[in-house]
Amino acid sequence: MSQRIDILNGPNLNLLGVREPQIYGHQTLADVEQLCRGFAKTRDLEVAFRQSNHEGQIIDWIQEARASAAAIIINPAGFTSTSIAILDALKTFEGPIVEVHLSNIHRREAFRHHSYVSLAATGVICGLGTHGYVLALEAIADLIETPV
Ligand code: CA2
User: How many angstroms is it from 77 CA to the middle of ligand 1?
Assistant: First the structure.
């Protein structure tokens, strides 16, 4: 039976491809979902791809993932540097967690450099655009097959 990977996207990522293409590129979040689904098929993984502008909704999805997902990929967006509550929820999840950022947060404003989420993440990918999501899925597929 295929395992489910939850891909959670935080606030404003629904605007991807619509605003600020010089930072986040021209692909929409629907394009990212397509990319992820295409790759997931090659590794027999199921994907739940979600976006919310609401912190509590993201926490609910993380709690739900505890019972039903093998791994989490999360782009916490603006909650990255602020949300101890998302960190606390992620810490209760037992499988691999990969934090993804489209942009290289370390080349941007100082307030973007610190991530609470990284304290719970197995790995972090940033600066590689939408390909970062595929790399995260690939890493997770390998981790699930051969846990470290
Ligand atoms: O680089 C990333 O993926 C970020 O997580 C994106 C967040 C930002 O707060 C993080 O520091 C880095 C912002 C997401 C907002 O997405 C937009 C997309 C298009 C237009 C406007 C915002």
Answer: 5
